Amino acid sequence: MKNNPTDGPRGERELQVAYGTEERATRFYNKQVFDHLNPKMLSYLLRQEMMFVASSNANGECDCSLRSGPSGFVHTLDPKTLVYPEYRGNGVMATLGNITENPHIGLFFPDFYKSTVGLHINGRATIVENQELRRWNDLTRELRKATLITIGKKPERWVSIAVEEAYIHCSKHIPRLEPAGGKLFWGSDDKIEKGGDYFHEQLEPDTG
């Protein structure tokens, strides 16, 4: 559990006082916030196919991005450490660039299909090249296999997260969805397969 709720962000504590939510917040800290992944959380991660990644640079400018893969694409090495793969993308490196300036990262795993709860994981991130990860001694068999080829291609690199907080997002406002199936074009550079000119960016005037 979270050792001491008063160690939390100052703004968080000040607003709890201002809005009269201290008692509820303390109860949540004491019962729901962990400094590690407990067995139920570890089991939950094994079936997740997507997550949202929040990061910011040294100036506090934020980015939120989606990562997805087959069930269990986020691997846990132990209750305090997890890693996820980075595949070929648009080359902007928004998330990874933020990590090089500010290692604090937030992950959110919503379960739209079964429990309709979510799992928040906050921690400190480090970029690990694929070949470097393969030299780690504590890799699981599944993770070592994932460094070779997954979803049709080999990861370019990984992000390792040292877990600092893990807590539930209740099901009250998470909708229940059904997977629609369909083919996924992992790592494709084809414009149509990637979604084409969906937001009509090519119609925007060049202001450069």
CATH class of the largest domain: Mainly Beta
- What average pLDDT do the residues reach? 88
Instruction: Using the CA coordinates, give the radius of gyration.
Output: 19 Å
- Strand-pairing-aware structural class: alpha+beta
Describe this structure as you would to a colleague.
- Helices cover 22% and strands 27% of the residues.
- It has 208 residues and is an alpha+beta fold.
- The chain has two domains: 1-33, no CATH class; 37-178, Electron Transport, Fmn-binding Protein, Chain A (Pnp Oxidase, Chain A, Roll).
- Strands 2-1-5-6-7-4-3 form a seven-stranded antiparallel β-sheet.
- The longest helix has 11 residues, at 22-32.
- The model has no long low-confidence stretch (mean pLDDT 88).
What secondary-structure arrangement, pairings included, does this model have?
Blueprint lengths: L9 H9 L3 H11 L6 H7 L4 E7 L5 E7 L6 E4 L2 E6 L7 H8 L2 E7 L7 E12 H5 L6 H6 L10 E13 L39
Antiparallel strand pairs: 1-2, 1-5, 3-4, 4-7, 5-6, 6-7
What's the short version?
The chain has about 210 residues and is α+β, with helices and mostly antiparallel strands. The chain has two domains: about 1-35, no CATH class; about 35-180, Roll (Pnp Oxidase, Chain A), CATH 2.30.110. The chain has six helices and seven strands, in the order αααββββαββααβ.
